[in-house]
Sequence to fold (732 residues):
Amino acid sequence: MRNKIAAASAVIIRKTLRLMGKGATTLPGKIALKISPDIIRSKASGKNIITITGTNGKTTTSHMISDMLNTLGYDVINNISGANLASGIATTLICGREEVKKAKGDSKGLVYVLETDEAAFAKIAKPLSPKVCVVTNLFRDQLDRYGELTHTRDLIAGGIDGTSATLVINSDDSLVASLGIGREDRSVFFGMDKKALISYEKDHPAKKGIIPPSADAVFCPECKVRYEYKARTYGHLGDFYCPSCGRKSPDPRFAAIYGEEGNPAFEGYKFSIKDTKNGLMEEVPLKIPGSHNIYNTLGCVAAVTVLTEKMEGEKEDHFEKACDASSEVKAAFGRMEKFKVKDKEVCILLVKNPAGLDRSLQFVADSKDTGCLYLLLNSNFADGKDVSWIWDVDFESKAEDLPENIYVSGQRYADMNLRVRYCGRDVREKGDETHMKEIFDKALSECPSGKCVYILPNYTSMLALRAMLVKEFGIKDFWK
Amino acid sequence: MEKIVIGHFYPDLLNLYGDRGNVLALAVRSRLRDIEVEIRNISVGDDLKEGDIDIGFIGGGQDSEQNIMSDDLVKVKGPVIKSMIESGTVFFTVCGGYQMLGKYYKEHDGKVIECLGAIDLYTEGEKERFINDTVYEFSPDGKSSVTCVGFENHSGRTYLGEGVMPFMKVVKGHGNNGKDGTEGVRYKNTFGTYSHGSFLPKNPEVTDLLLELALKRKYGEDYILKPIDDLGAKEAREAALKYIETGKEQMI
Ligand SMILES: [Zn+2]
Fold:
């Protein structure tokens, strides 16, 4: 009874707020949870649910999985607006039916694809009882808000233990991979093919800065001994092993193999994915460029394969279909989205933490179409008040490959300016958030024709940037 | 050509909140003066002898990571570090690294962690963390003073022993313990602070003082540092001060 009242209230609130032109992605759920704390369990019961958690790539991964399931004939409901706390998830469960993304063709059923904040996951995993839980990676992320990384890992582990879900987890991330220990029978790993990774690293040695970037999780928590790496992708991800206890990156069921030609920074870069369980291999184009998006694509193929196996039985060739579906996805809001302004392009890459900024800078350094780089740094509560994290990022190793013209803005533009100057590069134009638009205009006008202005904002500076772009260019909802 | 060796202690474990920016500042401001720089990573299991380094940097870490290195720091490297500090080697230490120089760290549940005991100070953990932008007054020679800015994030409250000199005076923020207006410690050529991350990049007067102390020790008292560009540090400091004055920062 309480659940019915809670749900009914949420629906009314949502309708009222929507009439007022509000998004209403969290408030209805918040109120429903107040009326009935049991509402998530009640609404989730009997549904096909997949959760996605981890530090980076949650939104991209959720978006891709939704698109892929859609292509495969499923109706999909998701919390794509980024409402990834309990309130947003309750809202999605109660009110999501009005926003079903209809399957292409006859529907095979309905799936809820839920991006879930790491801390929220600990509390709501049990009532959600998802069929599949995806964990992308774990990196330091605004430590002043989230606390220690091992604590985040333990929160996720606690959430998992309240469910009987199959885990789709990254084998190259020592923290994420450790979630599989003691849960072997329900863990499915995805990661780089080990042989391919070693030979790729040999052919593409990473440039080194003055000092190594700040490392996360490079010690075995059991033995307190430094992991050895046979090869690395980025950050602490790679083929690791503990020389003391022998703990190592698991052999993944789904393994990615770098392509023969081109560069992962280019859209359409061809790489291969193996399903070692069934001895299958597919070549797929990287739809969302950036070497870290190989992991995201791989995680999505793994998740969709495992989920469709669970829902439809293991007989069909789910892997091949998942690979095909992955070639039809699009980028999510603020993640590698591009739009045209006359003969130039603008691309926004949201950067919230050191690993994200590191990958985005590398991407800009590797891209062929880079015209200029515009960095935006705010320090509102949602961003984290402390901007020291920009010093954890290895600008030095990318400095000489960044474009000639670099611009900075945002509340903490002067900190970002200093960071850029320290890596030996000059800044063309700088100013606080009140100058964001005029500096954007300058960057755009100074960008060579046919090239792209890459903008790397953190969270609230992205919101401000988006509002400005919508107003100036009449680009409506280009992020949807 | 002069050469300076910077010892970066436990870079793979003590690397919280951008602490590596401090090592970068020392290196970049040396290179801009054509001083050769060698950065030596000194982590668990690595050798350390007196005379190996000209400047030592010890940052802060997460609890789980500090647990991994604390035995190595206190029991293995402790005696050498203490003797280096006594003989005037330059050290710059932040947060956890600073606390480790003291006698002990008492957690709020009463557990006592033994520290290096290189300087007469101790730390007590409390539940409430101090997380905020900070402003300090630093007086390198006891006469002139420089306004420095930083960011603190710590639950430890550090108390200096009788006659032990603080590094700076708190203008805004909590400093050592939120009570006595002191921030950090200065003992011989060793400095400790709660200011994370971009402290040395943003406050080049301190960076240059550390470099000068180390170079004078190595090349004689007559050694003078060449003046160089501040790379926008003063602008960053002005902007931070303005940001703090307009109340946009959040005091927790
Ligand atoms: Zn081990």
